[in-house]
Amino acid sequence: MFSKGFIRTLLATALVLTPVASTGALQTAEAASAAVKVTLDGKSVALDSAPKITNGRTLVPYSSLVTALGGKASWDAKNKVVSAVQGSTTVKLTVGSTSAYINGAYQSLEAAPHIINGKTFVPLRLISEAFGKWVTYSKAASTVSINSTLTVTTSTGPFTLKKKPSRIVTLTSSDTEIIYALGGTVVGRPTALGPVIPSAAASAPEVGSAHGIEFEQLAAVKSDLMIASPALKSQQATIEKLGAQVMFNSHNTVPEIQASIKLYGRILGQEAKAESIVNGMNAQISQLPKLASKPKTLIVYGAPGSFVIALPTSYPGNFLTLAGGQNAADKFPGMSTMPQYAEISLERIVAANPELILFIAHGDADEVKASFKKEFETNPAWKSLPAVKNDKFEVLPSDLFAANPGIRAPQAIAAMNKLLQQVD
After folding, report:
1. pLDDT confidence bin for 33, thresholds 50/70/90
2. Cβ-count burial of 141 within 10 angstroms (0-12 exposed, 13-18 middle, 19+ buried)?
3. What GO biological process terms does the UniProt entry carry, in alphabetical order (predicted)?
4. Which fold would CATH assign to domain 37-147?
5. pLDDT at position 281 over 50
6. Residues with Cβ within 8 Å of residue 123, at least 6 apart in sequence
7. Nearest 5°: phi and psi at 305?
8. Do the beta carbons of residue 318 and residue 327 sit within 8 Å?
9. How far apart are CA 317 and CA 311, in angstroms?
């Protein structure tokens, strides 16, 4: 049995130690929040209270943040609503609610605003990004950085965005798809020869293509960023006179498509989503059936009378390699105007001796196939090719191959892989 004196001593010790442990835990949490620094364009932001971390999100006093960003803040005490205004942007947040409204549009929050010691704390990222800034967090430096500009690397080199874009124009369908997959939208899109993908972009006006721009339409949509092909560099000054920055970027191969996904994810502040899309693409490609051999395949692009041959550096050529085939034209010289493609050459094709011929064209697949077959079968030299003798002609699906499919590249590669299995 324990003596009464021992029990009294034990209870007294517990009463002394318990609050010390709780205070220590609280102080540790406070220290973790207080240790987070906030900078704007490299300069420290003066906050009237230390940042707080809630659900992995940084919350700061709303008045200090909005003022630092050059906006105006107001407080509706009756409804507990914070309003932040900068230029044409208005953000409304309600204490205790995970619903936010940016210019009237709903947005969900992971951490609701709350009041601590009489001060209202709001999510730093939401307001900063709504005001056209980029936000990054360095765990090593324990610093949240807000930046007014962003320098990225495109396929043509470094490019600096002067503000976070909110009115993007794309001139290729693959760029449009990537932007929407990352949660963004466009105010202008390329001219569509078929169904608009994604369908959510169908309501955006057509402003041209990778080969030319409809400047009247571009002026009407009031874009702040156009993503364009490097082939349009000569139009840069005209585009910028209409108020849009123009970023030149292109992609052909899967690695280049994935680089564009990460690039646009960085611009939109959706790096994690971009990484997830890239990982998903890689997983789909890695699960394709492996072929015992690599069937020699010729990819013909165009229409009878205006054929070109897809080389390994083109998107169909790269997809063929990833699907498990061998490009019969891997030694063909590229065209000066389109380096990823070669002019059609009877002698080279006969020497390449393809086992399978794949066609890319717009229109009805059966009609296209019949037209191609007729042209190849009427030439005595081509009739000796294994692909012709064994009737190995196939038309690739136009929705996946008529233009670079971007994030749908794994589906295109899977379609090729299925055709290659018939020859393997």
Report:
1. low
2. exposed
3. cellular response to iron ion
4. Copper Amine Oxidase; Chain A, domain 1 (3.30.457)
5. yes
6. 57, 58, 59, 93, 100, 109, 110, 111, 113
7. 95, -15
8. no
9. 5
Question: Over 50: is that where the pLDDT of 181 sits?
Answer: yes
Structural domain spans, the chain: 37-147, 150-285, 289-421
pLDDT in the model for residue 212: 87
Angle at 332 between CA 327 and CA 333, to 5 degrees: 140
Whether the predicted pLDDT of 159 surpasses 60: yes
Q: Which residues, 6+ apart, have CB-to-CB distance to 18 below 8 Å?
A: none
**pTM attached to this predicted model:** 0.86
Strand partners, 279: none
Cβ neighbours of residue 140 under 8 Å, at least 6 residues apart? none
150-285 and 289-421 have identical folds: yes
Q: What is the pLDDT of residue 363?
A: 66
The CATH architecture one would assign to domain 289-421 is 3-Layer(aba) Sandwich (3.40)
Range name among 209-218, 332-341, 372-381 with the lowest pLDDT average: 372-381
Residues 253-260 have a mean pLDDT of 98
Q: What is the mean pLDDT of residues 384-401?
A: 90
- Write the CATH number of the domain with boundaries 150-285: 3.40.50.1980
